[in-house]
Amino acid sequence: MEPLDPLGLVSLYLLLSGYLYTDLSHPTKEGGKENSTISNAETRFVCVYFILVSYEVYLFFLFRPLQNFFLIIGRRPAGWMAAVGDLQFEEFGNAAATAAENPGATTISIEGPGESPAHQAGLPRGSGGEEDDELLGNDDSDKTELLAGQKKSSPFWTFEYYQTFFDVDTYQVFDRIKGSLLPIPGKNFVRLYIRSNPDLYGPFWICATLVFAIAISGNLSNFLIHLGEKTYHYVPEFRKVSIAATIIYAYAWLVPLALWGFLMWRNSKVMNIVSYSFLEIVCVYGYSLFIYIPTAVLWIIPQKAVRWILVMIALGVSGSVLAMTFWPAVREDNRRIALATIVTIVLLHTLLSVGCLAYFFDAPEMDHLPTATAAPNQTVAAAKAR
Amino acid sequence: MAKAAESSGEPGTTSPRPLFAGLSDISISQDIPVEGEITIPMRSHIREFDSSTLNESVQNTIMRDLKAVGKKFMHVLYPRKSNTLLRDWDLWGPLILCVTLALMLQRSSVDSEKDGGPQFAEVFVIVWFGAVTITLNSKLLGGNISFFQSLCVLGYCILPLTVAMLVCRLVLLAEQGPINFMVRLFVVIVMFTWSIVASTAFLADSQPPNRKALAIYPVFLFYFVISWMILTFTPQ
Question: Structure pTM?
């Protein structure tokens, strides 16, 4: 795989320079002939570029991590992926190396009835992670493997499969919310609270509440800010609900997906001790958004300083929960990549909160300046004094 | 039959022979006819029900359905723990209520600015998809209520909020101001609480006891959003 990489890079460079050459020799004019020539060159460039980029993406991102994808998916919900699991043991260099290092390694694999016995006796699938967990003295790993295998054993087209994701009691949900509000240094949210019982109840309903909290608070805050103005006509701004829903659900599902893909990819290069399943990452992200619900309600207060202090507090709490969760997963990796991962996670979180504040909540002081006449000034003073 | 009883009774009273040992000796003579009547109590009721709904007048059919819907409205307005809403569920009431609410809440066509109140379709979608989501949630948490029963209950419990909408519409005909807003706020809060109490009375029993709060919270959110839409409704 590695020797092909310079080939891709060189081809891309040649194509790019070819495109630039075409562009330079036929500069843009208003004539139709030049436009058609450039569009031909552009079309050619785009087609070849697309093919090459897809090839690169396939090499780098799909080939190895796709194997790991099937591996991880096949480990937990064992029903439908059992058939695909037959494919996954063909090329797995890391597992073979680990098997060579630890010939006496035993693994426990709990799978559905579709698994063939040859595979259970065969390669120690993912045994590196389990053994390292045991070496660390983490007793949860064996139990969690057993529990995970026993719980999610229905095929994915039955209702019971999805019921396993809602297998939480009221006190468990409250505990998880409490854990997301009080990040204790050194305690991992996933290990402490989720314990391989990731639920979808928390992420889904916290996101739903957050959507409505942001939309309603934004509406209320704008109403209070513009209260005295004569030209202001109150509108419920219902469209913002759908925009808020898109933003928040996209963040809560796509960012965990990207992060999980990235962690799987790094796992194939560096054997990490801690690895999370996709649902656990979704769970952490969902519960870490809980702090924004009271923050959104408090953002109604039309003071810039108050709002930014609230942003800092919320970012501090949820950012630290996320950072402390994912630091053990990237710790063994290259130092710079680990730091870059954590910084990216916190940066995306910052982007979400600042973006929501900027879009849904009007700035409090700026709107008063253009309408500086006698009557609104008095109402402004009254509103500020409130 | 009497012969069989006697011959099987005798071994028990006279000597310790195994039970039913004498059954092999029994013969039922051919010339005792076996005849009788099997009556199932419900059957005659069903038979006349089936044939009569085809022949009855349209007014009868409609009045029967309307009476069923009206009875359920009464059950919502005076919530007691009863099974009527759950047992004979129907979706007529929720449809009527949802359409009424959406018609009254929709943005008027004169005011066509982008950011206004919800459109008819938005209210409709929120009500029905909200109800479906809550039903799925309660079923996934392990509740033993059927899908349409839960939809029926959630739909019927919008009735207090529809009444609140009507009252708000009437109050908005008077002059605008903070008193107007206070009256509307009070009415909406009261009706919101009524909806929650009514739906909890019907839905709470079907949930496992350690997950009741998890199943009731989405209902609270659902009615809160509808109340917010009613409260922020501005005419013109």
Answer: 0.65
